Amino acid sequence: MLRLARIEARFQYINEPLAIAHDSPDSLTRSLDKGIIGRQRLIEKHGEALVAQPAALARHHYVMGSQLRTLGRFAEAQAQFAAVLQATPLNWRAAAQWLLASVHR
Length: 105
Fold this sequence. Notes:
Elements: H1 2-6, H2 32-51, H3 54-70, H4 74-87, H5 92-102
């Protein structure tokens, strides 16, 4: 999708399922660690495109921060929530999450 968006491809929403997905127990969607690694790779690979879409970039950092907090990796979570605030400065949810991570909650 990101590659297509870069070349300004046009998209339309289709309100019906087009595929059936099956998750394995060790899939990216079920493993917090793998999900974090996947999002980090996505940001590294497509960072330039995401900078043009601050809300999308912030969403990736927010999800990673939430996953890191769940894993008890509070300093890393704080860094992700700080990245959210850098991309979207008035994001009060990210500010609250940053605060919670700072007190190891």
